[in-house]
Amino acid sequence: YTEAWDADKKSIHVMPDTPDILLAKANAANVSNKLYVQAWEEAKKKGYDMRADAIPIKTAKASRDIASDYKYKETHEKEKGHYIGCPSAKEDPKLAWAARAMALQNDRLYKKAYNDSKTQIHIPVDALSVQAAKECQTLVSDVDYRQYLHQWTCLPDQNDVIHARQAYDLQSDNVYKSDLEWLRGIGWLTEGSVDVVKAKKAQELLNDRLYRTRPEQLKFTSITDSPDVVLAKTNAMQLSDV
C-alpha cells in the first residue's frame, strides 16, 4: 500500500530558486552568529596601528591627568605655607573669616555670657513669688502632709480613735477572712455547686440527642398500596436486570 508513496518520495525535487528556499536562506543568514561577527573577526585579523600622537591617545592621557588625585592636588601642595601680602596667619582675611565663623558656630562660646550671668541673680527673700513658692512647697510637701502612726497627735482612748480602730479592723483583710480559717482542711464535694450545675445545664442545651429525635426512633407504618409505593415497585421491576 505504501510502496508507491515511498518510491514517489524519493523522486521529489525542489528547485533551489523557489521563494521559500530563498527566504529560508535569507533567514539563516540573518540569524547566523558566524556571519554576524564575520566582519569583526576579519578586522581583528588585520591588526591595528595606533601612534603615540594619535588624538584618542592624547585625549586619554589628558583625562587621566585631570582625574589623577596627584595632579589635582599638585598646585595646592606647592602653595602650602606661602602667604602673599600677609605677615601672619591672623591677618589673612580668609583665615580670619574662617575663625569668626567657627566662633559663631561654637555652642560653648555662644552660651558663655549666659552661663556667666545666670549665677549673678539676687532675689529679695520677701518677694511675692518667693513667698508663694514657699507656701506651695509646704502644701505639696509629703513630710508635712503625712503623719505616721507612731506619732500620735491625740489620746489613744478617745472615742473617735476607738471608732477609727474598729473601722480599720472591719476593713482589714485579715479580720475579714478570719471567719474562713476554720474551713481550711475540710473536704468539700463539688456536686451541687454553682459551676457544676451551670456546666450540666449547658451540656443539656448542647446535647444533640435530647434536642432532636432520630428518624429511626419514630414508629410509623407504610401503606403498601399507595401510588408512590406502587410506582416505585413498577420502576424497580422495569429496571431489574433479572
TrEMBL record:
Keywords: Actin-binding, Repeat. GO terms for biological process: cardiac muscle thin filament assembly. This is NEBU protein. GO terms for molecular function: actin filament binding. Signal peptide: none annotated. One of its GO terms (cellular component) is Z disc. It holds the Pfam family Nebulin. InterPro entries: NEBU/NEBL (IPR055297), Nebulin-like (IPR013998), Nebulin_repeat (IPR000900). It comes from the Eukaryota.
